[in-house]
Specification:
By secondary structure, this protein is mainly beta. 5% of the residues lie in helices and 37% in strands.
Length: 546
């Protein structure tokens, strides 16, 4: 069988996605990253509506307990809906600017793997509305967000925002700040989550809801898109969707704030990628079940609060201040052998703003196994020029997600590097030699005189196609001649030339391919109706339109 060389592939899907707004992270933005793939008429991942969490009544005991939570409008252009909560250390100063706690991706879902944002002014259109219940809308009062005190998606997914209001101002609305707990969720622990979803929820019901759930696992290493998180909690919370990001997770009695809702395994997505976080384990990446919800602990934030606000210079503060080396890398997905030889790391390491980073040390290992904070296993420190240096060692060959740990220090004696290993920087790369598990699919729209067909992208198993088509009697899909990259322009096939055969070869982000697949047009399941969409699967059966 002759197939098309993967060298014809011009732009990996993972690269093409950069800069668009996240679909898997639980913000309620108006654009999703997946819109690049789906477009009008494409089958889209479903939004789960099972077991929708009940709305919280403002006058109920839970209404009083969760009154500090509400709607955060933030993100690029102020178009991102998240959930946030007023927080403080015990006994905050009434005159101190009020702080709200939410996810880092609610500030910017383009935060890089190692990025930390501190003290950034917030755009004028960012706002927070506490006590955001369905039955007290006439009482809702919105407060501007003044400043991003802290935000990161490195190791965790948290942000602390400063309002243009004091705790005294909020007290007038009977909003009492929640105390952030230094405790972390434990496996099997009953939990509750207060959040305000918008995706899959009618406009009149997009208010605070309360989920009852359980921690199915704790201290989980989670990877999604360009982020690596450690210490996350896997939960079975239901009713979680876009807008729930940043919702607080508490103990069963609702008293202790121990985590924030972070992301969900989106139904309709396959494999690992944006909208489909995966867990790093000793046996490799594990794909979670649909609707699995992850939460990030907030103990680091608790360690940096005092009655005056967020104190990053406080003794014992555990938040990463972003002072490690700068690492740039592609986050590539690759086969272990490439046309250029064995796959290699492509990381570039350079000093950050601090002049203390004169040397650099490295170690690598599987994600979820290697501990980058452990000095054991690092290379001997080597000089780090101001222009930086490249790390291009060969990647291991087994299918895994691998992490490069990079630490910068002041000298050649790593024994003095205690602070350097505390918050190392990361790069990652995924070795993937397996063919896509999904089979190519085709959308067919039937019009009066033609068929319009489009291959369906099956994130994250098929993210690119090569295609050819012709009369059924003379088109051989197993012959590699004639295949062309599918450029996301629907193919029009006149009915006068029917029957047709459309040939598809699907690729994943590592350029692994499916077998050539022949799909007939028309198929027996396609009815003649203008604009009717049918999903054709190999074998010629047509599924109900979505």
């Amino acid at each position: 069988m002759k197939t098309v060389s993967s060298s014809s592939r011009r732009w990996p899907a993972a690269v093409a996605l950069s800069g668009l707004i996240a679909a898997g992270l639980l913000t309620g933005g108006v654009i999703s990253q997946a819109s690049y793939f789906w477009g009008d008429g494409f089958a889209k991942p479903s939004i789960s509506t099972k077991s929708q969490a009940p709305l919280i009544d403002s006058a109920s005991a839970d209404g009083k307990r969760f009154r500090a939570s509400g709607r955060l409008i933030s993100g690029p252009g102020g178009g991102t809906n998240c959930t946030a909560t007023v927080v403080s250390a015990p006994h905050p100063l009434a005159s101190a600017r009020a702080l709200v706690l939410t996810n880092g991706h609610c500030v910017r879902d383009t935060l890089k793997t190692n990025e930390v944002a501190i003290g950034e002014p917030a755009p004028q259109n960012w706002s927070f509305t506490p006590a955001y219940f369905h039955d007290n809308t006439t009482e809702h009062q919105t407060f501007p967000v003044e400043r991003v005190a802290y935000a990161t998606m490195k190791d965790t997914d948290i942000a602390v925002l400063e309002l243009r209001a004091t705790y005294r101002d909020l007290a007038k609305l009977k909003v009492v700040p929640r105390i952030v707990s230094a405790d972390k969720p434990t496996a099997g622990q009953p939990l509750r989550a207060a959040h305000a979803p918008v995706i899959g929820v009618s406009p009149g019901e997009q208010f605070l809801r309360l989920s009852t759930c359980r921690a199915k696992a704790a201290a989980v290493a989670t990877h999604e898109y360009s982020w690596l998180w450690k210490g996350t909690t896997r939960t079975d919370c239901l009713g979680i969707s876009g807008g729930s990001s940043g919702g607080i997770v508490t103990t069963e009695d609702g008293d202790r704030l121990v985590a924030l809702i972070n992301t969900v395994a989106t139904p309709g997505y396959l494999g690992c990628g944006l909208g489909r976080p995966c867990e790093g384990t000793a046996t490799g990446l594990v794909v979670p079940r649909d609707d699995t919800v992850y939460a990030v602990p907030v103990d680091r934030v608790a360690s940096c609060l005092d009655p005056t606000g967020l104190r990053l210079d406080k003794q014992g503060c555990l938040l990463d201040l972003g002072q490690q080396v700068d690492v740039t890398f592609s986050g590539r997905e690759t086969q272990s052998q490439t046309p250029a030889g064995p796959a290699r790391w492509d990381a570039h390491v350079s000093p950050a703003t601090t002049l203390q980073q004169k040397y650099a040390a490295f170690k690598t290992g599987p994600f979820g196994v290697v501990d980058c904070t452990d000095p054991v296993g690092y290379s001997r420190p080597q000089p780090l020029p101001e222009t930086g240096l490249d790390f291009t060692d060969a990647l291991p060959t087994p299918d895994r997600l691998y992490v490069l740990c990079a630490a910068g220090g002041p000298n050649a004696e790593s024994e003095t590097w205690k602070d350097s290993f505390r918050y190392p920087a990361y790069a990652f790369a995924r070795v993937d030699n397996a063919s896509p598990t999904a089979k190519p699919k085709l959308d067919i729209a039937e019009y009066e005189d033609m068929y319009r067909v489009r291959p369906e992208f099956l994130l994250w198993e098929i993210t690119y196609y090569e295609v050819k088509y012709g009369p059924r009697a003379t088109t051989d899909c197993d012959n590699g001649d004639g295949y062309e990259p599918y450029r996301r322009v629907p193919i029009s096939l006149p009915k006068a030339g029917a029957p047709w055969t459309v040939c598809l070869i699907g690729y994943d982000n590592a350029s692994n391919t499916t077998s050539p697949t022949a799909l007939p047009v028309p198929s027996g399941g396609v009815r003649s109706a203008r604009g009717l969409l049918r999903l054709l699967t190999p074998g010629g059966t047509a599924a109900a339109s979505r």
